[in-house]
Amino acid sequence: MHEEDEFGESGVVKRFMYVNRKAPYGTIYALECLEMILIAAAFDQDVSVVFADDGVYQLKKGQDTKAVNMKNFSPTYRALDDYDVEKIYVEKESLEARGLSADDLVIPVEVVAAADLVEIMAAQDVVLSS
Amino acid sequence: MMLHTINKSPFERNALQSCLRLAKKGHAVLLIEDGVYGAFQGTAVAAQIAERMADMKFYVLQPDIDARGLGESPLIDGITPVDYGGFVDLVAEYEATQAWL
Amino acid sequence: MAYQMNGTSVETDEEGYITDISLWSKDLADLIAQDENIDMTDDHWEVVNFLRDYYEEYQIAPAIRVLTKAVKKSLGPDKGNSKYLYELFPYGPAKQACKIAGLPKPTGCI
Which domains does chain A have, with CATH numbers? Predict the structure, then answer.
């Protein structure tokens, strides 16, 4: 139960990075990872999120799942700001390979080249990839 | 004649590549679920389908395109979008269906 | 467990959250509130409606910290603080108010 901040100011804060590499609807990974991100953020951890490979499709604007009868969870990425998750990176190479640009995405992100992502990733305490 | 269905992203798996390598002239390919990511112009995999456009037919399931927010993105020339009814018609029209999982 | 509403049965999970959000109604909310020992006032409804709007917009029930912040932003600091929200919903505003609003358990609430 996380009603008030039981962890208090004395709680340990680690740098958690979540690396999203899967498209949103073909598997459950994307939705599960989003839940993990929100939970880590609710526990006041230092959270970064990366979208690479097919993970960039999770952020594609204009998703409409009515006809496939699944929940469209793309609006939830817009709540990341409320959860104080502000470090959101998208790998430049992955976007370009899919003919996409930052304008195609539901939230503002930092587009970074793989070479720079290397350094950001190496600086984390915990990296969870899905 | 055979209908091939592909439900994996061509960026993540090689199901589309293998299908295009092994499918015979005159066969049809239907892209569904994450397979639809292969259907668009301007991607790194677009050339693979374009290369076989002359001797095969290509279809893509529109509800799966809409779910993924790609309804406005241009399809590779020659790919025909179908709805669920069209999916059923294709399965009925071809003698056999092969699902590339 | 299930609530009976006008002859239809509305199922809940083992913690009392209704499982099909589309079956929610104001009457059902009153029924759930009774089970939570809450007498619904305009102030309660304001928070419940706020949560439903938040869910409509973002497709999640917010964690308490996020709810408090969002309420503060939209209804002002008098209401956007945990004291006010806990007075309305003593067993946890995110949990109790979400249950009454017909939403799933808040994300980030284990």
Answer: 15-129 (3.40.1260.10)
